[in-house]
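Complex record, two chains
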Amino acid sequence: MTAFPDAPRLTWKLSDLSETDLTVRTAWSGGVDRLWRTGTARGAGVRVCVLDSGVEPDHPEVGPLDGAFAVDTGPGGEPRIVKDVLGDTCGHGTACAGIIRQLAPDCELVSVRVLGGDFSGTGDALLAGLRWAVRERFDVINISLSTTRQAFAQGLRQLADEAYFGGTLLVAAAHNSRVESFPWRFSSVISVGSHGEADPLHLLYNPTPPVEFFARGIDVPAPWLGGTNRRCTGNSFATPHVAGLCALLHSSHRGLTPFQVKSLLHLGAANVSATPDSAPESAVPGRPDDRNGIR
Amino acid sequence: MNQPDPLIAAVSATVADSDSGHRDLLQSVVATARAIFGAQASSILLLDQSTGELVFEASSGRGENSLVGTRFPAGQGIAGWVAVSGEPMVVDDLSQETLFARDIAESTQYVPRTLMAAPLLHDEVVLGVLEVLDRAEGRPTTLDDMDLLAMFASQAAVSLALVQRNRLAQAVLRERGTEFDEVIRLVNALTQRMGPRRDAGLQLIAVLAELL
């Protein structure tokens, strides 16, 4: 969110170099590897929002939240944002928050419950929750859900674009079934599917999107309701791995734009090598020796 | 005329009580899903939008005799999440799970340790949830399992859509029943009779249609 401290003038074309500030606010080291991406960062100072089923307060594997909100129905039937009193209605949101904490233990974490409780509408609540979170200018918003309703696609797309140029990263889970849904389908978000590797930092870039990245999404240990934990499977649980990685990138390289973060994720992906013909390093599918191993 | 007229068959399927045929289809889906995954139980739940509840429509395996017709709120629990979010989920070690419809699970003396649940999506809308409980022990979850579950869910969604369409048609006929009672009786009579009487009946209807 510090990428654009002052709202810039709209720049439609680069006709006058003298009046256009092209200073890039982040240094470029020239190389990206896992250490560059994560370093010793723990996510301090990065604001992460989890749009989900809520997060259980004070779960030992999640810790204290920096805020908990919910979408409910206002007097006129319209969705509105209120303080959340229910916590998690399912366990799903607690699992996502816990996975982010595993990667970025010091990040600020805010929950927005968009499903469960009395509000069972999907698209309206998702839209209202996302609008609030984008305007709160979080650094990273984890969205491990989607809507299949075309009617919400345009509104979500506009919010995704607003977030992208406002410096907020939307990290969204691809649908687990072969169906169209939103917002993961948009190019302005970071979309995530699952791979079966057990390494939480193992990231794969998909050269044939719409799903752009794959992260750990099978048998993921994660916190669940009642202070317990579970092993969870699905793109929902791959997504917070990438959200956590984004938080680490933000905390070690402040001021990155969503475009830059996406580029860095690509450059640091396990199946992307410095040169196309670099020597194989391992036999794990999806790693540099098996460039076609991406599913 | 040895084969029923397709048009008559279509009309009779809509107005006559064909719910049991569709129920058989749902039952077949859960029985097959259960066998493929080597699971203890599998169920199809319908999302009742009017009450915000999930209703067991078909069940195979443990609890199958008591579950059909049972309702619980869709706002909580894993099946509820899958129904309102439209996303499938696989969660293992549910023994300590507090919100997985535990009241229902315990009423059947059965609390599952693992659960796979997928939304039944049809025309952008979630109609319900397919659940597979306690798949074969020691079998780790794979991405292929998710795909297989999604395939069964697609099949179940089509079946459930047919059930709902049929029920809607019947509800409309019930509401305006007096208007169509005789038509329904006529269709039922035609589908139950074969041979010359049926042919004669059809001819009579044709004449009536011309007169109208």
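Note: Chain A has a mean pLDDT of 84.
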